[in-house]
Design brief:
2 copies of one chain form a homodimer.
Chain A lengths: L2 H18 L3 H17 L1 H17 L4 H7 L3 H15 L8 E6 L5 E8 L2 E6 L3 H13 L3 E5 L5 H17 L7 E3 L4 H9 L7 E5 L2 H10 L12 E5 L5 H13 L8 E7 H17 L3 E4 L1 H7 L5 E3 L2 H5 L6 E7 L2 H11 L4 E5 L3 H10 L4 E6 L16 E3 L7 E3 L5 E12 L3
Parallel strand pairs in A: 3-4, 3-6, 4-5, 7-8, 7-12, 8-11, 9-10, 9-11, 12-13
Antiparallel strand pairs in A: 1-2, 2-16, 14-15
Helix pairs in contact in A: 2-5, 2-7, 3-7, 5-6, 6-7, 10-11
Chain lengths: 419, 419
């Protein structure tokens, strides 16, 4: 392992022991100190960010990436407010999850405790740096951040501000550290820091997440890829279904919980497809239609023939694959083949269909008569969101602060031995 | 990925969909059918096992390994009974873990659902083959087993018996499959079967577990290594502490929850060490003593000087490292440096010491005045035990059937869209 990363990880481990026993009051004071320091040091951070943005433009970053990279006073104020909002959430640490008294008198309690050292690897969004530091602190974890070279100057400035703020209220400065200056090698070393990093959370595009999952030797929580489906059943309220499909696709199309594929029961195809395709096209969506859909809606602008790849694609944009299925089993099978396991929805008036769909579709979130766009920690009432897990180990679906904790059994005896 | 493993994993996926919706009644019928088939086909299994044992002896397996490998009619009867016992446990699938109604009227429920496809890699113990199949079935998962070449014939015989038994009661034969004939390559392919295997559980020695953790690209639950400590505090009931130390070390010394290191507060050293070292030596334990311990107990048979490696060693045998610490902080620091995070115990009469120890020691299980030997799914009342997790992600400490499940959110609406 890279020595520089090992040194940082060891300092994080020491800091994590202090954070693990910090009270909620101390952690919330840290969140406020960080929030205020960001606003106080606003000029220094904006200057560093300006350097990143200029370099990004020279290097030909897309306007979208430049926008994500760019900080303003107003954005810093929002990021700062988000830290204060975190302080208002309950402390996930110390919750008693289960307990019992055994026949021999041993008293068992299982408590939520911090993970310890959490690594985060993400792409050039300086706001995630603050976000990760805040979530880590509130859940009692030290964080090691790797934020992508395009945001190097911004992240270094932010981490130094946050670190000093923590120190100013008696919390360890090493609770928030960056390995951004260590480049790609540092990133790989972090993925392999067995025994030093308790969990690694990649946040970003599918490529980043795949790389981390494949190279990591530390436990990983995979987040985010959402190839979400809506199935419109034979028994359906077409008006309601139309609103749900349009909302799921177009309310915001660049996010993981936007719908990417619409499957329509054959008996509804003739009446539902013309109106839904028209509504989507009117909203600027390109419809990738299968043969049966094409034969129903005919040739029209905004509609193209679907290819196999369309079923596998998370468009993250104004495009939707549309197909006809003979029955609910075919819809469930299609979803089983192509879904990324994020969110799927059924539009139906049938109790039997809703029960079948929710029990047989194997995804993190399964909706009945509701937009896929609700899969979100904030919408679910979890408070802060770490990300949306698409794996099955540890966390599945929207992750709140509780998902950054693990457990500890406390066994209280008065001399019990095993016979 | 190895094609043969991919084929097997795809069949497991199909079977897992059937198991996920199987009722408890169907799964318990499967457990009984497997239990009865093992006894009925006893002669065929014993013949296959005899071949393995003979080959093992030719290959120079140790008597301990030969013993673990060997089946008898009586052992088959016990294994069969264990399957029936599993049937009596509650079904972990379908439990509602949380739920709420959102301000917009959406009703949320988070349910326990099966993982899907569970891989198990273990060493030459044919009983684990049955155990894994039973645990998998009860938790609604299909299993893919890789049991080590020394038990090849036994495992093939057992898997064919179990598979046929499942089919006889209308459950999918592919719910239990083996990749034992595919050798080392098959094993590596299983570790890399991303998207086909939901979780991989290695069971066995430290070497096996390290290999799996490093090579796997699928999520892994790390089990078992236990370098467990007992700290005897300044304020202590010496008689009770003596019983706990001797029990923790000697009640069964080949298991992961046996204690490996004893740390004694300096103020107790002069009075406690002579009696505890004598008691350990009388039970046949070799004591690896640090300088201070040596100077207290003097030269005696069964006591040798400790070296640094002793603090890191899981002896799994009649040996124990013994050291003196100046205070509880030093004990906690020692444990933080050397422990594998399995189980640690404190012997104390002080409330403050017990609180400090339980809050600052970062292990799966922390005991106050109780033997380390209690860290066990059966002892904890969890019913069946999958293993003891020493990682923090997903499960920590003894794992019951519930740890072979993940969750699914069901969101019930009546047309909600996101504004």
């Amino acid at each position: 392992m890279d020595n520089a990363v090992a040194e940082i990880a060891k300092k994080a481990r020491v800091a994590s022991r202090q954070l693990a026993i910090a009270t909620r009051g101390m952690k919330d004071a840290g969140l406020y100190a960080m929030a205020e320091a960001l606003v106080d040091m606003d000029a220094m951070i904006l200057q560093a960010n300006k350097d990143d943005v200029e370099k990004g433009k020279e290097n030909g970053l897309t306007p979208g990436l430049i926008d994500r990279l760019t900080l303003t006073s107003e954005r810093i104020r929002q990021i700062s407010q988000a830290l204060k909002d975190l302080a208002s959430l309950p402390d996930p640490v110390g919750e008693v999850l289960r307990g019992s008294t055994l026949p021999n008198g041993l008293r068992l309690r299982q408590l939520a405790v911090p993970m310890g050292v959490v690594g985060m690897i993400y792409e050039a969004r300086p706001n995630v740096t603050v976000d990760a530091a805040g979530l880590g602190l509130k859940s009692g974890n030290a964080v090691i951040l790797r934020g992508g070279s395009a945001a190097l100057e911004s992240n270094m400035a932010i981490v130094s501000v946050l670190s000093e703020a923590l120190e100013s209220v008696g919390l360890p400065a090493d609770a928030v550290q960056s390995i951004d200056t260590l480049g790609r090698e540092g990133s790989v070393a972090l993925m392999r820091a067995r025994g030093l990093v308790d969990v690694l959370v990649p946040r970003g595009g599918a490529g980043l997440i795949q790389t981390v999952v494949k190279e990591a030797q530390v436990p990983v929580i995979e987040t985010g890829v959402g190839n979400c489906h809506i199935y419109v059943d034979r028994d359906v309220d077409q008006d309601q279904a139309l609103r749900i499909v349009v909302n799921s696709k177009t309310q915001r199309n660049s996010v993981c919980n936007a719908a990417e594929t619409l499957l329509v029961h054959r008996e509804q195809a003739a009446t539902f497809l013309p109106s839904v395709v028209r509504a989507l096209v009117d909203k600027g969506v390109t419809v990738h239609a299968d043969d049966e859909t094409l034969s129903v809606v005919g040739k029209m602008p905004g509609v193209v023939a679907a290819i196999d790849d369309d079923w596998a694609t998370e468009y993250l944009g104004p495009e939707m694959a549309v197909g006809v299925v003979p029955d609910i089993d075919a819809a469930i099978a299609h979803i089983g083949t192509w879904s990324s396991g994020h969110t799927e929805a059924i539009c139906t008036t049938s109790l039997a269909a809703s029960e079948k769909f929710t029990s047989e579709v194997d995804s993190a979130v399964v909706n009945i008569n509701a937009s896929t766009r609700f899969t979100d920690g904030g919408e679910f009432g979890l408070g802060a969101e770490i990300g949306i897990s698409t794996q099955k180990l540890h966390a599945r679906g929207p992750m709140g602060l509780g998902e950054l904790t693990t457990t500890k059994w406390i066994v209280m005896g008065d001399g019990q031995i095993r016979e």
